[in-house]
Amino acid sequence: MQRTLSIVKPDGVNKNLIGEVIKRFENAGLKVVALKMAHLAKKQAEGFYAVHRQRPFFDSLTTFMCSGPIVPMVLEGKDAIKKVRDIMGATNPKDAAPGTIRKDFADSIESNIVHGSDAPDTAAFEIGYFFNATEILR
Ligand code: IDP
Ligand code: MG
After folding, report:
1. Ligand located closest to 49 CA
2. Residue 78 phi, psi dihedral angles, 5° rounding
3. Coil, strand or helix: which one is 8?
4. What residues are in contact with ligand 1 under a 6 Å CB criterion?
5. How far apart, in whole angstroms, are the C-alpha atoms of residue 73 and residue 116?
6. What is the rounded distance in angstroms from the CA atom of residue 7 to the CA atom of residue 35?
7. CA atoms within 13 A on the CB side of 87
């Protein structure tokens, strides 16, 4: 069993895709074990994406991530990290495979609907960024 953090980003919430995203994860056998809605301040978005602080898109990305409410969630299942990444599709919707969330719904490489942790260490950091132990089912 593995846990990962996913987020429906502001563009996904704005397009009424919260249910669609969760449905795709659940249909793949993943369990939602924590869920909330949040509206990040700029500093909180910067902290979440700290690994990208040297990238040219950092300011734009973190501004986008606090432009509206988001829905962070913890998903649990076998190979949860890879499953979520496969369901999301490539970062740039132009490169995303047919049937992935980003191919089906994303407008751009930045406004790409959904986040998913990319490795066990980042998943642990990202889950802890949004949820404390009492907020995650056990
Ligand atoms: P990922 O979300 O597929 O893991 P990362 O490379 O970790 O992609 O980038 C984090 C987020 O930063 C992306 O989901 C996207 O919103 C944004 N992003 C990535 N690359 C670019 C870019 O070249 N221009 C603008 N935004 C980008
Ligand atoms: Mg990433």
Report:
1. 1
2. -65, 130
3. strand
4. 52, 57, 61, 91, 109-110, 112, 115, 118
5. 10
6. 9
7. 26
As given in the structure block, the two tokens for residue 46 are 């910067």
What ligand 1 atom has the least distance to the C-alpha of 64?
A: 16
The tokens for 69 are 């409410």
Q: Give me the residues paired with residue 74 across strands.
A: 5, 34
Q: What pLDDT was estimated at residue 112?
A: 98
Q: Is the dihedral of CA 71, 114, 87, 120 positive or negative?
A: negative
Q: How many residues does the chain have?
A: 138
Sequence-distant (≥ 6) Cβ neighbours of residue 91 within 8 angstroms: 102, 109, 112
33-87 residue pLDDT tens: 999 999 999 999 999 999 999 999 999 999 999 999 999 999 999 999 999 999 9
Hey, what amino acid is at 126?
A: E
Mean pLDDT of the chain: 98
How far apart, in Å, do the first and last CA atoms of the chain sit? 12
What DSSP designation does 132 have?
A: -
Query: What is the whole-number distance in angstroms between the Cα of residue 116 and the centre of ligand 2?
Result: 7
